[in-house]
Structures are given as structure tokens and as C-alpha cells.
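Input (structure):
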């Protein structure tokens, strides 16, 4: 079954980059790509193709920007992994995106190796989540069916009870799997935040970086004498 990927960017070069980079995967039927030029178009694509697994979105776009799109995706409950694509100097918006539901980010100009790794990681993570959701849904349906059988057929009460207990055991196991994924996701989020912090510290002094993270801006400072 192919994976579905949505790319949201108002720059035509980005669409060309994706189609060229993954042309073999598209030809083999492994990937199906959708393209939108702003957040509003992206929401239409997601409504039309809810099977979309991964979204790559630019931050600065006309009509609806990437940060607003992230909020809309979360609000409407789409099951997909979102990654932001932005310039190296846009760390503030990248950090904001990571704090508001983005799974990962890719820096422009896009490095193909990083893009490929980010896409594969996102697809794998989303596959696990969808499998867990399907298992839970199937389990809930099975439990409901067993409960109905218990009401309708009193003679099968003991058998239904045994099955119910078994289903509850399976549910506990599924919950443990889901809890483990939540822990892993939390760790990945912490790692991603550290990644953005390291990027920030690589271009700014620690004092300035901390002030920028805390207040979102840096107050001007006066120096009587400086050398450039």
C-alpha cells in the first residue's frame, strides 16, 4: 500500500525537488504526492485525501501560513505527521512549530539526505500510530460484540466472560504499547527541541539565545566603545 505525502509550499522549486528526489518511489507506486501552495489549499487536500500520512509545510505562505495550518490539522484531528520546512534563520518560528505539534523540521536549502531520513522516520511513526488505532478500534468492536452476545445468549455467558477477560488482557497490552510510543514520542520531541536550541546557540551567544527563548526578542544594549 503506497504512502501519501502532502507538500505545502508557495515556491515551485520545492515541488520540483520532491518530484525529482522521489521519482523512483512514485514510479514504483510506493509514494503518492499531493501539492498545495498555502495552508487553505492544504486543508482541502487533507479533507479530500484523509489517508495522507505525512505533511511537509513551509511556514511563511500567503492566505494561510504554516503555523496556522498546524493548528488546523490538530484541531480537525487529521492522523498525519507534520514537518515544517523553513530557512535556517527562522529558528523562532521553527521552535514555535515544534512546541505546537510539528513532528520534525527540515532546513532550507533542503538537503536531500536529511529530507529522505525525515520522511522515512515520519512514515514509520505514523504507520505505528495508525496500526495502534486500528487495533484499538478492532478491539472495541470485538468487546462490543461479545457484550451483545452476553445479553442475547444467557447460556453463553461463561464463554463470553472468558472472551471479555481475554479482550481486556489484549487491551492492557495495547495500552502498554501505546504508552511506550508516547514515551518515545516525548523523547523525540525533547531531542528535537534540543536540536533547535543547539542551532540557536550555534549562531548566538548563550545570553542572547536565552533572552530570545524567554521573551521572543532581544533588548538593545549600549556599549560606549566597540571594535568591528
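Output (sequence):
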Amino acid at each position: 500500500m503506497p504512502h501519501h505525502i502532502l507538500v505545502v509550499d508557495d515556491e515551485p522549486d520545492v515541488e520540483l525537488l520532491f518530484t525529482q528526489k522521489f521519482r523512483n518511489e512514485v514510479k514504483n507506486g510506493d509514494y503518492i504526492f499531493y501539492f498545495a501552495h498555502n495552508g487553505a489549499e492544504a486543508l482541502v487536500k487533507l479533507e479530500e485525501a484523509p489517508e495522507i500520512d505525512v505533511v511537509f509545510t513551509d511556514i511563511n505562505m500567503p492566505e494561510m501560513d504554516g503555523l496556522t495550518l498546524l493548528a488546523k490539522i490538530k484541531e480537525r484531528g487529521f492522523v498525519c505527521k507534520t514537518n515544517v520546512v523553513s530557512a535556517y534563520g527562522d529558528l523562532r518560528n521553527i521552535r514555535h512549530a515544534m512546541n505546537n505539534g510539528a513532528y520534525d523540521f527540515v532546513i532550507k536549502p533542503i538537503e536531500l539526505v536529511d529530507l529522505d531520513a525525515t520522511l522515512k522516520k515520519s512514515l514509520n511513526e505514523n504507520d505505528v500510530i495508525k496500526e495502534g488505532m486500528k487495533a484499538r478500534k478492532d478491539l472495541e468492536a470485538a468487546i462490543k460484540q461479545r457484550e451483545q452476545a452476553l445479553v442475547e445468549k444467557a447460556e453463553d455467558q461463561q464463554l463470553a466472560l472468558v472472551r471479555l477477560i481475554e479482550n481486556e488482557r489484549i487491551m492492557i497490552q495495547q495500552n502498554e504499547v501505546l504508552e511506550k510510543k508516547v514515551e518515545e514520542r516525548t523523547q523525540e520531541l525533547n531531542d528535537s527541541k534540543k536540536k533547535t536550541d543547539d542551532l540557536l546557540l550555534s549562531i548566538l551567544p548563550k545570553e542572547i539565545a536565552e533572552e530570545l527563548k524567554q521573551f521572543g526578542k532581544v533588548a538593545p544594549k549600549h556599549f560606549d566603545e566597540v571594535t568591528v
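Notes: The chain has eight helices and five strands. The chain has a mean pLDDT of 84.
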